[in-house]
Amino acid sequence: MFIRQTSTKHKKSNTTYIKHQLVESYRTDKGPRQRVIMELGTLTLPKSYWRKLAAELESRLAGQESLFAADATIVEAADTAMKHYHFVQTKAQEKQQRHEQRELVTVDLQSVSSSEHRSLGPELVAHAFWERLELNQILQDCGLSAKQQALAQAVVIGRLVAPSSDLASWNWLRNQTALVELLPVDLSNICKNAVYEIADILLAQKDRIEKALRNQEALLFPSQTTLFLYDLTNTYFGGQCKNNTLAKRGKSKEQRADRPLVTLALVVDQRGFPIFSRIYGGNQSEPQTLPEILEHFHIPEEPHLFAQEQPTIVMDRGIATKETIQLLKSCGYPYLVVERRAVEKEYVQEFEQVKTTFEPICHDSTSGTVYVKKLPWENGSRVLCLSTGREQKEQAIDALKEERFLQDLGRLQASVAKGNIQLAEKVGERVSRLKERYPSIASHYDIVLQLDDSRKKVTTVTYSMKESRAKRHTLTGCYVIETSHRDLAATDIWRLYTTLTQVEEAFRSIKTDLGMRPVYHQQKRRTEGHLFISVLAYHLLICIEKTLIEQDDQRRWSTVCKALSTHQRSTIIITDDQDQIHHIRVSSTPESAHQEIYRLLNVKDPLKRKHKVVAKRL
């Protein structure tokens, strides 16, 4: 074999193009002939290397290995040529296969139409990760039948792809998604009660399912578990729920004090993978939940949770009281918390010298610079922290509250001066309301009521700022992290604490992306089942997002789902020249944006083209 150079000239542009070919000589009855074995494009190798390249390519095509190492330049050029050669060969084989399998009929183009358009893209991704987590096997081990497994997959993926109420999920499953075509069991005729019942069945196996998912996620995304992040959130009900024992009035984290609430406790690891979840009433005291959570952690038969040492428990100030910290110490758990009480008040002098004695950490544009200082504390450490971003935010909030407080106080003074309100009892009520409305600001002001000689009427209202207001200004943006770790540096302790954003992100995804709110169920077990479905959907969501992150893609699931929503499955309807009506069920060709996501997630469409003749036109 040898390499031949040919040139062609473009008639209009008068440009000469050069290409190279690998050519083989062979003998025939009519004499020697030549045939092109491989197109090489335009070579940049010097002509003196062509003979060696031809020999290297001939050896590779024959499946032979050279005894002598070829020059690196030759190897690189041969690799490129062989890659292109295999690509061309594959395309030629595919073309031949298409020609062998094609089915040709004459059709009336005026009859072409389409129907039964169903969403496919997000379902393909969710279905692929359901299989990677081996959830069907997990559910089978829990005693679920094949139909129950398929229904569970439909409900959980429905919560991931089209989050809504259970009734809306039932309608989505019947009318909007191609997911039913991916399932091994026909669910096209299921009743809506089946959607509610499968949630009850899954809830009954909650602990076993969560344990199995932890094991599978540890295999898919191996990492040493060093942190457990624990927090609680609550969401509101869509009705009064008088017969629901979980529906309780409490402090809503979504500012929905007008509705009864339900609480979800969640433990995730440092990467955001769920470890354990629990559901409580809406008035649940956060610190009181910790003993039950710690008791659940102490499971000797699960060595992967504590592979080498017990992980550090990280909690925010809502849970970290003196009692809970003492509980962690008595149980031997390493911990890292910001205590509920304002510990920073004990370190006013240190915070006054923050810019000179603290270590700065350049964070980001949102948090600004964070200053940290580590101090010994009992058997552990305390880290004093000042976030300039947090300081600016709190100062702006304080300034707005203080402005409104003083405006309301000024209006009260004017009312008293005009005589509109003078009775001491009534004025005292107005002052009390101001203190209730602005508790963080009113505590730093002294409000004095001047009474007349009868001691029944108020003549003037005066106020003055306390010295504590200046102290509050000093401590704005300050907090104290307490930990059992003594050997870690202040910056390392602070970075561990910031991993709490993982559990906050989990709650945000469950509430926003997975439709946890509001809850419409009127029964306790149905409420628990609804929330547990959201937690299961979050297992799929976090696996999808972590896989994208491993591919240097930072997109959230909501963005991916929106991008894939245009990839659909449809039925094409055509009539041939024999007046036969053909229905062809086919997936649409993925667009470039779809293909990129499928490539990153290694997802393929398993659905085949389905063709049937349904009738004959009269």
Summarize the structure in words.
The protein is an alpha+beta fold. The protein is 44% helix and 24% strand. The protein has helices spanning 50-61, 72-101, 121-132, 135-141, 146-161, 166-175, 179-182, 192-204, 206-220, 290-297, 322-331, 348-352, 354-357, 388-418, 424-437, 439-442, 468-475, 490-498, 501-513, 524-550, 557-564, 592-601, and strands spanning 2-9, 16-28, 31-41, 107-119, 227-236, 261-269, 274-281, 312-315, 335-338, 359-364, 368-377, 380-387, 445-451, 458-465, 478-483, 568-576, 580-587, 610-616. The strands form four sheets. It has a nine-stranded mixed sheet with strand order 7-6-5-8-9-15-12-11-10, with helices on both faces. The relative contact order is 0.11.
SSE map:
Layout: E1 2-9, E2 16-28, E3 31-41, H1 50-61, H2 72-101, E4 107-119, H3 121-132, H4 135-141, H5 146-161, H6 166-175, H7 179-182, H8 192-204, H9 206-220, E5 227-236, E6 261-269, E7 274-281, H10 290-297, E8 312-315, H11 322-331, E9 335-338, H12 348-352, H13 354-357, E10 359-364, E11 368-377, E12 380-387, H14 388-418, H15 424-437, H16 439-442, E13 445-451, E14 458-465, H17 468-475, E15 478-483, H18 490-498, H19 501-513, H20 524-550, H21 557-564, E16 568-576, E17 580-587, H22 592-601, E18 610-616
